[in-house]
Write a structure and sequence with these properties.
The chain has 271 residues and is an alpha/beta fold. 42% of the residues lie in helices and 12% in strands. The chain contains nine helices and eight strands.
Length: 271
Amino acid sequence: MTTIYTTHPRYVEHTLSGHPEHSGRIQSVWETLNTSGLAARMTQIEATMATDEQILYVHTKEYLDLLNIIAIGHGLVMIGAGMDTYALPVSPEIARLAAGGVIQAVDEVLRGNAHNGLAVVRPPGHHAIPQRGMGFCLLGNIAMAARHAQYIHGVERILIVDFDVHHGNGTQDMFYDDDGVLFISTHQSPFYPGTGRINETGIGLKLRGLRQGALFRLSMRCCVAMLIMGWQQCVRRGIMPFHSAAWASVYWVISLWRLVTPNIFMGLNAY
């Protein structure tokens, strides 16, 4: 089985001392992949930059213009509603490399050159909304790749699973009225950015005979069940490096599911 691995050494150029989203994060991922031997088992390709056209798949022309202005500037710019997202003159270029890396992985798989792909990129993307960056994210990396799969490869049905403590609000916004994309976000509520509530299930969905609430509950049960079974199988086979962490994750999911607390419903939303 061939796994494509896309990344780029220039990702470290987008960094700000003292900021939580800094170059050390991806350097740690690279080190882990290399020391574990996983990187050597994959086919690595160097990411290329996303084009203006690909950015406009999910972002507005006004936001693209802003990024181009930042790129020819001379200093630090803070963007986002809370001014929490930094951009240096080099940042738009690195963000293009990040989104381009994800798009490349999709291309390689859909062209039949690989069975699956891993894109290790930064800056991250799931908080960026069509009209601006936010939450440390500049471009909607996964959203751009999904649109690319739709527009270029003709993929009609796409599943995006966002596993993070924070809700992937940007990715959700970009596909909120697209019934060809099922977006599932697991997150802890009410953490940043405060979205991802149980009633955020999209619009214009073709339910094929099922009520929207019924479809949501079915998706939630299936996803939670698959997550629990997957963790259990990994631990039982002894392939998880840290069994206690694995069991803790299983216990957390099972506990929430059995208690049927509001957090589990707010932590899984799909449309």
